[in-house]
Amino acid sequence: MGLSTSSLFPLGLEETFQAARHTGYDGVEVMCSLDPATRDAMRLETLTRVYDLPILSLHAPTLFFLQFAGGLDPKKKLEDTMRLAVDLGVPTVVAHPPFRWQGRYAKNFVEIVAELEECYGIALAVENMYPWRLGVREVLPYYPDHDPTDEDYAHLTIDLSHASTAGDDALAMIERVGDRLSHLHLTDGSGHTLRDEHLVPGEGDQPVAEILQRLARRGWGGSVIVEIATGTSRNFEAKLAPIERSLVVARRELSHV
């Protein structure tokens, strides 16, 4: 059970380690972002030592608003994140599917992912996304689409909020990919908005309990990472309650073997 740095936004890296330690998480997922500390091996090693918490995964800077984080070359940024994972002993890197305008990188992405995994020995788990909607018009920014589960990736991440926003059946996706699922972003969505909500698990329409129970019953060995929106407040104490509620839900449902 890990806590994503995204859950503490707009607070920073160290606050995530503090929150994870305080509420009883097993580790953290670090979103490599515009903050240089999130891509600094020495800084990250210091935090893991000070808070006695491992980094369970790194999220490569593949979000739309992070296109300038770590440079402009998307393949190099992905490879830099893999190298950082090796340096830190992190087993998994999460990445989004490529954007359509990224040319050769997008067209060769399946092969690029396989090459990087073979080179670095790290799981590169490609994450499901969702279409963008402008009024009544649907825009498909990802290549070939927002759902990577039908591509030839060895490792996948399923995000429950993204599934809700896309109108995808997350449970069916997880059953379909089987052992290729290596990572779960535990969150939720209402299914009644075009926004990516990242609700506390259990507060939306996703089959959170059934998904966690099925994974537990089959002895799944991947990481469950809580990635929720806790608002734009910088009040650290106020963010702890939803973070702790999310952990309670996860522990309860994962114990139903």
Low-pLDDT sequence parts: none
Roughly how much helix do the residues carry, as a percent range? 25-40%
Major beta sheet summary: 8 strands, parallel, barrel
pLDDT averaged over residues: 95
User: What form results from the Cα inertia axes?
Assistant: globular
Alpha-carbon Rg, integer: 17 Å
Which secondary-structure class do the elements indicate? alpha/beta
The number of distinct helices, counting runs of at least 4 residues, comes to 9
Number of strands: 10
User: Roughly how many Å apart are the termini?
Assistant: 16 Å
Strand proportion, as a percent range, falls in 15-25%
Strand order of the largest sheet: 1-2-3-4-5-8-9-10
Q: Topology as H/E string?
A: EHEHEHEHHEEEEHHEHEH
What does this entry look like structurally?
The chain is of the alpha/beta class. The protein is 38% helix and 16% strand. It has nine helices and ten strands. Helix 1 packs across helix 9, helix 3 runs parallel beside helix 5 and helix 8 crosses helix 9. The mean pLDDT is 95.
What is the fold's blueprint, element by element?
Layout: E1 2-4, H1 13-23, E2 27-31, H2 41-51, E3 55-59, H3 74-88, E4 92-95, H4 103-107, H5 109-120, E5 123-127, E6 132-134, E7 137-139, E8 156-159, H6 160-166, H7 170-177, E9 181-186, H8 208-217, E10 223-226, H9 236-254
Parallel strand pairs: 1-2, 1-10, 2-3, 3-4, 4-5, 5-8, 8-9, 9-10
Antiparallel strand pairs: 6-7
Helix pairs in contact: 1-9, 3-5, 8-9
